[in-house]
Amino acid sequence: MNLLLAGGYLCEEGILRANIKKVVFGNSLEELKTLKPPFFLVLSYDLSSQTLCTKIKESPFPNFIALEIESFSKATQRLKPSFLIPKKIPKEETFKRKILKVKDYIERGDVYQINLTAPFEFHFQGPLEAIFWNFYLRQKVPYAFFLDLGDLKIVSGTMELFLKREKDKILSKPIKGTGKSKEEILLSEKERAENLMITDMVRNDLGKIAETGSVRVSELFKVTEYETLYQMHSTVEAKTKASFEEIIRSTFPPASVTGAPKRRAVEIIDLLEEHARGYYCGAGGLVLNEDNFTLSVLIRTAYGTGDTLTYFAGCGIVWDSDPDKEVRELFLKVKAFCDLESLARK
Fold it and tell me: Residue 209 class from Cβ within 10 Å (0-12 exposed, 13-18 middle, 19+ buried)?
């Protein structure tokens, strides 16, 4: 067993290695009550069927993984030779046709926005931990982690904060808006409208567990630069006395990876995507106790078994989405994990 996590989960710098005491696998939300903090938790998108009471495709993996932790230590880089070899890449025309289907749903009034995703399958050679380090160093983010449980492996380079709680204060920082420059995002009415739509969804989700009158948007349209792209996020804050399980039931899956309205968006996603999302678009993070936890949204995430990893990327589709631009965004989100253009030139 091996767990590395970025210091952002503990408001520290660099990468930490966890000393794991016990691993627990579970499938129901009720089982979260039995976990003993501190623990690192990975929630599968498959749990959406329980929180939204709707049937979706499910992966063969447990709905959650919890690793009870004894301590942390600073991790050192392990940059041994390792390689990712593309095995199956999404077809651009297929993805564009699905975008047009989403726009049909929007035109009929089913939804306002859908987060549409596609899988990229890779073989890897060499130590997987080195692939994680390369991924992290190409694009340093606060909520990266690497989990190796033998056969099951997860590599995440996510920068998106799902939920952070400190005592009675809780906040979320949904990401919507991607581009190659800050100006490109801020000048795009589509990106700002999409961000505002998802921010309003998060306000609604937190409102279910918040003290009356405590929900507020403290940041709107904040753009952050990363090594391969720029991302726009907003910040929603609230006060709550709800339990950890109640909070997850009210907010999962994250609004930014579903669409609006959430339940209907999840149903349409299940119709359009042939793949089960599994841990991608779920959540992962550190739970120190009931009143202190940090969970990320599992974007920029790959998982798999054996010598195969499936990395996923997605785009938020609204009525005025340009299919060609959305495809470019889809492949841009893969660049930090594996530079497909560079491989194609070799």
Answer: buried
Helix (H, G, I), strand (E, B) or coil at 108: helix
Catalytic residue selected from 98, 129, 140, 160: 160
> Has 274 been annotated as catalytic?
no
User: Mind listing the pLDDT tens digit for each residue in 266-313?
Assistant: 999 999 999 999 999 999 999 999 899 999 999 999 999 999 999 999
In one-letter notation, the amino acid at residue 89 is I
List the one residue out of 305, 343, 327 whose CA is nearest residue 124.
305
pTM: 0.95
What count of Cα atoms within 13 Å lies in the side-chain half-sphere of residue 69? 23
Of 140, 173, 176, 333, the active-site residue reads 176
Kindly list the domain boundaries of the chain, sorted by start residue: 2-74+82-345
176 is known as an active-site residue: yes
CATH code at 2-74+82-345: 3.60.120.10
